[in-house]
Amino acid sequence: MADKLTRIAIVNHDKCKPKKCRQECKKSCPVVRMGKLCIEVTPQSKIAWISETLCIGCGICIKKCPFGALSIVNLPSNLEKETTHRYCANAFKLHRLPIPRPGEVLGLVGTNGIGKSTALKILAGKQKPNLGKYDDPPDWQEILTYFRGSELQNYFTKILEDDLKAIIKPQYVDQIPKAAKGTVGSILDRKDETKTQAIVCQQLDLTHLKERNVEDLSGGELQRFACAVVCIQKADIFMFDEPSSYLDVKQRLKAAITIRSLINPDRYIIVVEHDLSVLDYLSDFICCLYGVPSAYGVVTMPFSVREGINIFLDGYVPTENLRFRDASLVFKVAETANEEEVKKMCMYKYPGMKKKMGEFELTIVAGEFTDSEIMVMLGENGTGKTTFIRMLAGRLKPDEGGEVPVLNVSYKPQKISPKSTGSVRQLLHEKIRDAYTHPQFVTDVMKPLQIENIIDQEVQTLSGGELQRVALALCLGKPADVYLIDEPSAYLDSEQRLMAARVVKRFILHAKKTAFVVEHDFIMATYLADRVIVFDGIPSKNTVANSPQTLLAGMNKFLSQLEITFRRDPNNYRPRINKLNSIKTWNGPFRLKFNRHSFSLSVQNLSGKRSLSLCYRRDGSQCQICLRCLGRLLHPAFMLTHTGFRETMCAFTSGLLKLLYCCT
């Protein structure tokens, strides 16, 4: 009986259509044939019902269902007593809840459909947890008794006594214009309870948008507007559901700093985010969510930021001795094969070009690229990355400059607006008939992107993440010399982003083609890039697309524009942003003094507020301590190093430089 209680049956409400089938699930069920009501469904039913107590987990109904609407999932046996919420019979279950702490930022990380938004609704007091008793919901007294002895008991008690006011920044900001009418300034004036509107608008670059109507805002502007509306209100609980969507790297960091400015000993702040580098920068501690999407989700205990994200990537929870992913997600420092292994057969050149569009002018410095190479374009929104891609694709003609080489180009646009009225299978058959049935393409692209799960769904009914995966498969399936991919991570969760990056990397390497990728997720960008094109200048005014650079030089140039530094995690090598004013941000400027007996080095951090002085004597008395400190600054595992410092060292003594390299 204990074994039966740890099995849940899920019936997809969108796919189950009893009026259009012959109730194959009921007819094939061995328990029903024995005379027990394990599956109840008739041609007049809206949806099938499966008894989880009687189900033996044979899986016959799953295979017989013509619409793929059923799934039977085995739960870890220790979770049955920890059900927090279930919507209805044969529907999603959430186990446990994240535990927020006052004065700290709680980050939630997990795949789509795993219960993060459900957890936010419950913690905001907008959804009453039913403890799995959907047919007989408990009252609040019973709920408080269930959580007794935990921090959640006090939390829910405060919510019930109306001591806590909660505000949620919604996930889908593109729906805001339907709910809010008027200008940006008028809405902000109406919501400004803390009198901090001017500061928040300056931090989020909203000052010049105050006269604009909400319905005229772009996706990134809507996101910043939504964050500002939440930040200027008085509340005890602040919740941000995916605050970095549509934003470029610089805007993401500004949004993170603005959210962290809300920290107060009496406030709870909870953030759901798929960009792991931003979540790392933003959070004080992390709760991971694992399980089966749309079936059940489990919340882990709180971990430190580094440990929590590493647990999510590793797929193993040490405190529960439980593995929820077959393979760990690891970022290798050198993911590309060696030069000897990848034979570059072709080299292409594009000329210097200029393009003027209204007040915006883009200058492109001439460059070159080879096959089996991925070029990542880095820059703020409005610097002309998409314009550059369209010019390479031949969709925009340059005003000045030479002709772009004629190449077969496959283009995945930034905004995906589906026009097809048929199923995904019909769309794939129509666009990439040869590729989507080819065994190599199926292994490299279709299976990792999980296209099989949605292949019979209507294109018009797909979610944003599903559309993104289909668009990526269509782009890679088209025969071409150059693949132009604009923001492949949009709408995807953390796991899907890493999988999409791996798919693009593997495909480009095997097909011996070239890819140009625009990407704002820094982890995905560093994973993909062989070389980097940095865009600088004034966004929406006058910008320059520099010629391709090596990954290290390009990233250093881009990060110097953002005034941030990165390091790599020693366990899985993922890039991590150094917190403002931390020791890792001491990168310059450098001041050196040299005389007969010693030399001293002064390093000032990026903000100019703190400094570090190191000294090396010829007698070696302070040599070991100082070199160890410098080694921490210049460790090769860190993303950004100040190469100028090492060059300056060469001018003084090559012997000391060797010592530094040995130390690091």
TrEMBL record:
The keyword Secreted does not apply. GO terms for cellular component: cytosol; cytosolic ribosome; mitochondrion. PROSITE patterns: 4FE4S_FER_1, 4FE4S_FER_2, ABC_TRANSPORTER_1, ABC_TRANSPORTER_2. It comes from Equus caballus. This is ATP-binding cassette sub-family E member 1. It catalyses: CTP + H2O = CDP + phosphate + H(+); GTP + H2O = GDP + phosphate + H(+); UTP + H2O = UDP + phosphate + H(+). It comes from the Eukaryota. Belongs to the ABC transporter superfamily. ABCE family.
